[in-house]
Amino acid sequence: MREAGALATVLSSLRHFARLTEPDGALPIDVALIHVSPPGPGRRAGIAVGMTPSPRQPGTCSTDSIRRSVHRAEVWQRSTGVEQVRQRTLSIGDIDLTGTLRTLLMLSGDPTVRLTDGRFERATLTPDGPGSIRADWGDDPSTARLSAWGPGGSWLLERAEGLLGLEDRIDGFDPADKPLRDVWRRQQQRRLFRTRTLWHDLAWLIVQQRVTRVDAGRQWTRFVTASGADAPGPVELLTPPTPAATAALHYTDFHRFGIERQRAEYLRAAARIGDRLAGSVDGPFDEVRPKLAAIRGLGPWTMSSVASHTWGDADSVVVGDDGIPSMVTWFLAGEARGDDERMLELLEPYRPHRARVVQMVFASGVRPPRRHHRYARNPIQNR
Question: In the CATH scheme, what is the code of domain 198-364?
Fold first, then answer.
């Protein structure tokens, strides 16, 4: 139903427009009417958005007018099932969904995802459009009850096994040596997820390049809040900015988010081909690797992170990270300082489960002695 997706996009934009405006502020136009023409003999359904000046001041309108227009459209939307919930139930056995999905909340304050006791929600972009998915397992830890909304809802439900870690295979992974053996025995219900949301993941990862996690979280939140859109359904999240919206921004537009020119250009470069590669996520990573590697700004750290995050590759080791090598060498060999070469040497016996070993290192809570080294902070807003 193409008109349903179009209305969802209109509503999302209007909600976002109203949210960014002060309660007593003024907007350049008045979206006074959203009219939906039902299909009939010889004609297709259509959507018309009427714009009229505000009676208070020519050429402006109040935020309340926008919100009333949104409300009228939402009433029609609910009555026709445009955002009708789609549901599915999956048996998850003894999988620890909280532990499995926690990595998706790596950035504090991320407005695209939420994890609470027995519930996970994520808003994202799919090849079919924006979508939201919710998983509930609080009442029965062996069963996940899934709900999805939006044009991309069905796409998300069809691939929910990957997101929840049900596609991850632990066959052959049975470490015999401490301390990995002991951690695996405690944490073997954790799995590696596969998001399949390539553009969302690329943008999320590029923002994290060369900055602290705290700064990345703030910048990602500003970027999504300013340029994303309200998620379909009742999840109260935001979808990330679309590739088209991101590519249309000038690099200086990213400065208000705290993102300097280099990462801004990397985001714009990835956005220009984001839609074209979205359909490749169901195939093997090696098929799309050359196309991703050709994108400016996608180096070893981002590429290995995408393989693990988007494709759920259990053997992909994140390289080029400032902290992971020392965490692995300290955990496996008691060496407080490590580099990529030493980390990969220690992980070699665990193929094809090297990413799982790193996951266990994080889950262990064991960390090397801290170095008194911090990144020098130089916010782009102050330049």
Answer: 1.10.340.30
Burial of 96 (0-12, 13-18, 19+ CB in 10 A): middle
Structure tokens at 187: 């944490």
Where in the chain are the domains? 2-80, 86-168, 198-364
- Cβ–Cβ under 8 Å, residues 269 and 296: yes
Instruction: Write down the residue that tokens 């801290």 correspond to.
Output: 370
Which range scores top for mean pLDDT: 18-32, 73-87, 300-314?
300-314
CB 228 within 8 A of CB 295: no
pLDDT higher than 60, residue 73: no
Q: Is 106's pLDDT higher than 80?
A: yes
> Amino acid identity, residue 103?
T
Predicted confidence band of residue 18 (pLDDT cuts 50, 70, 90): very low
| 44 confidence band (pLDDT: 50, 70, 90) | very low
**C-alpha distances out from residue 380 to 1, 108, 132, 219, 269, Å:** 44, 20, 32, 11, 20
Evaluate if residue 305 carries a pLDDT over 70. yes
Distances from the Cα of 58 to the Cαs of 51, 110, 181, 280, in angstroms? 12, 39, 72, 49
Q: What DSSP element (H or E) covers 266?
A: helix 261-277
Length of the chain as a residue count: 383
**CATH ID of 86-168, from 3.90.1150.10, 3.30.1540.10, 3.30.310.20, 3.55.10.10:** 3.30.310.20
CA distance 149 to 221: 22
Predicted model pTM: 0.78
| Rounded-to-integer distance, Cα 144 and Cα 157, Å | 12
HSE-up (13 A, CA, CB side) for residue 223: 34
In this prediction, what percent of the chain has a pLDDT beyond 70? 75
Give Cβ neighbours of residue 80 (< 8 Å, ≥ 6 apart): 4, 36
